[in-house]
Specification:
This protein has 24 helices and 22 strands. It is of the alpha/beta class and about 600 residues long. The protein folds into 3 domains: about 190 residues, Rossmann fold (3-Layer(aba) Sandwich), CATH 3.40.50; about 170 residues, Rossmann fold, CATH 3.40.50; about 190 residues, Thiamin diphosphate (ThDP)-binding fold, Pyr/PP domains (Rossmann fold). It has a 6-stranded parallel sheet with strand order 3-2-4-5-7-6, with helices on both faces. A 6-stranded parallel sheet has the order 11-10-9-12-13-14, with helices on both faces. The chain has a 6-stranded parallel sheet with strand order 16-15-17-18-22-21, with helices on both faces. Helix 6 links the parallel strand 6 and strand 7. Helix 10 runs parallel beside helix 13 and helix 16 packs across helix 17. It is globular, with a radius of gyration of 25 Å.
Length: about 600
């Protein structure tokens, strides 16, 4: 039986076959046939209309991180499509799949300069600007190409190292009719197994781990993407290995476990840095070894490779050996390799009695010292409240299943350092691209994925202002996410960095002030104007009740907290090192910087 469909109907039917529950986007003249096809199948796929295309991508990003399923995002031609690359870059760097459908110039009108066409170098040229931030893209010329292209897009997004994909859809192709014999079955267009390393290399890695006296497992985002938390836990307990994690790996190992050593890096923890630098064997799983996690590659700050010997597991062979030499590199899916490695180790040696070992006692002592280092700020009764106190109150108010989102800056770093997560896929942050404005729309997407779990976005005032318009989306679709706005009235993280790197007098151009008086909007009043629950808090004693009330309201909510802005209480600690260049007109600071930079091994 033949199918008579237009191009847009082909796309929508294939999205439904792929199990896509939501299409997120904004209508325009460049995607009207696609929007109408979605209207006609609203029984099977629901449309969510945000207020900005960047936020649409962030919502799809957050949805996947929360549940492991991708969404589709659609835009019109030109400006609407051009609003998406920031969201795509965030997803691309953190290996998050989503499908972006952008309207494009009619095939028969390319090069004439139609409304919103970019044509001075190549006809209808905007899609080329997406090349650095998508895993692969397709430019469609005929509707009959769509079944193959959509199948390939999902295959590309979801296999190997995941990432976003792009389909550029000319307006005439969206409306063009085509006769097809059938649409592809997704199960016949996808691999049915996960890649693992060869057994000889697995045995080599197992032998090296079995010989280790101070093994440390470094859990990265690949563990979360592979849903490999269980084999990670089993392997760590079999070896009695300490576990530390990157920002994208946070939550992949229970952070109340006796073997957990928190994080290494410039914004990591003293316990994580101690354990990672003192390891004789490191097992890195799905880790990029980026500059923040490595203290800009200064030996002895986050890692000591060598003399520490490195076993590196990654789905992407490009990452192995990129920044550190690997004694053994294993290319494969994190979960598949961990399971094979665990099975081999279980045959080679019995489980170690880690519960009473001196190494476990050392881990516990190092973690206790770290937790004690910020306890006074978490318990502080001062007003305005410290960030640490607000973070602690959020943790107390949320159940273990609650989802927490951060974007970038001091909040991101301090939540990373201080807030413990014991269940997978409950902590989320804009990692490698460190995108401001990400947390709130990403949290909305996550709530769509996990409607019964409480979802909280912890945002600064500058961060929230970048995507604050999505309060309208939350209210329209009744998405009950709580935004806790840490209002420090400026770009506090950069102000603190200026002070630390350049000196106190260098603080400039970072605060929202007029004639040295703070100038910041009343976010609670703005939220109320959008129709959300809102409350403004200035006293520490009110913080806990305000957060509890917002969660209990079960509606879009904003809790604005005026935060202490003083260096020392305005953010977390920096136990590692980060390469922040200092100019020569600060000779003493420049000399110190050059001395420190000279130690980098990269």
């Amino acid at each position: 039986m033949s199918l008579h469909l237009n191009g847009s109907e082909v796309i929508v039917e294939m999205l439904i076959r792929e199990g896509i529950p939501f299409a997120i986007g904004i209508p325009g003249h460049g995607n009207l046939p696609l929007v109408d096809a979605l209207r006609r199948r609203q029984d099977a796929i629901r449309v969510i209309m945000p207020r900005h295309e960047q936020a649409a991508v962030h919502m799809a990003d957050g949805f996947f991180r929360a549940c492991g399923r991708p969404l589709a995002v659609y835009t019109s031609i030109g400006a609407g499509a051009a609003n998406t690359p920031l969201g795509l870059a965030t997803a691309y760097v953190d290996s998050i799949p989503l499908l972006l459908l952008v309207g494009e110039t009619h095939t028969h009108m390319r090069g004439v300069g139609v409304l919103q066409e970019i044509d001075r170098q190549y006809w209808s040229d905007l899609p080329r600007s997406f090349d650095p931030v998508v895993k692969r893209s397709w430019r469609i010329d005929q509707a009959r190409q769509l079944p193959r292209a959509v199948s390939q897009a999902f295959n590309t997004m979801l296999t190997g190292r995941p990432g976003p994909a792009l389909l550029a859809l000319p307006m005439d192709v969206q409306a063009e009719s085509v006769v097809l014999h059938a649409l592809p079955d997704p199960l016949t267009r996808r691999p049915h197994s996960l890649p693992s390393a060869d057994q000889a290399t697995i045995r080599q890695a197992a032998a090296l781990l079995a010989s280790a006296q101070r093994p440390v497992i470094v859990a990265g985002g690949g563990v979360v993407l592979s849903q490999a938390e269980e084999p990670l836990l089993q392997l760590a307990e079999h070896l009695g290995a300490a576990v530390v994690s990157t920002m994208q790996g946070k939550g992949s190992f229970p952070e109340n476990h006796p073997l957990y050593g928190w994080h290494m890096g410039s914004n990591g923890t003293t316990c994580g840095n101690h354990l990672a630098t003192q390891a004789d064997v490191l097992l890195a799983v799905g880790v990029r070894f980026a500059d923040k996690a490595t203290s800009s590659y200064r030996p002895g700050y986050a890692f000591s490779i060598p003399p520490s010997r490195l076993i590196h597991i990654d789905i992407d062979p490009f990452e192995i050996g990129k920044n550190y030499p690997a004694d053994i590199g294993l290319v494969g899916d994190a979960g598949a390799v961990l399971r094979d490695l665990l099975a081999t180790l279980q045959r080679q040696l019995p489980p170690r009695g880690w519960q009473q070992s001196p190494y476990t006692a050392e881990i516990a002592a190092a973690v206790d010292r770290w937790l004690a280092s910020f306890r006074s700020l978490q318990e502080s009764e001062q007003s305005p409240p410290t960030m640490g106190r607000v973070i602690a109150e959020v943790r107390r108010a949320l159940p273990p299943s609650g989802l927490v989102f951060t974007s970038s800056g001091n909040i991101q770093a301090q939540v990373f350092q201080e807030m413990a997560f014991t269940q997978p896929r409950t902590y989320f942050s804009a990692g490698g691209f460190s995108t401001m404005g990400w947390a709130y729309p990403a949290a909305l997407g996550a709530k769509l994925a996990c409607p019964t779990s409480p979802v909280v976005a912890l945002v600064g005032d500058g961060d929230f202002l970048m995507t604050l318009q999505e309060l309208a989306t939350a209210v329209q679709y009744e998405i009950p996410v709580v935004a806790v706005v840490f209002n420090n009235q400026g770009w506090q993280a950069i102000r603190d960095l200026q002070w630390l790197a350049f000196g106190e007098e260098a603080r400039y151009g970072t605060m929202f002030e007029q004639e040295e008086r703070p100038l910041s909007p009343n976010f609670a009043a703005i939220a109320a104007a959008f129709g959300a629950y809102s409350r403004r808090v200035e006293e520490t004693a009110e913080v806990a009740a305000a957060i509890a009330e917002a969660l209990a309201a079960n509606r879009p909510a904003v809790v604005e907290v005026l935060i202490d802005r003083q260096l020392g209480t305005s953010g977390g600690q920096a136990p590692g090192w980060w390469d922040v260049p200092v100019p020569g007109y600060l000779p003493e600071r420049r000399a110190t910087y050059e001395s420190e930079r000279s130690e980098e091994v990269i």
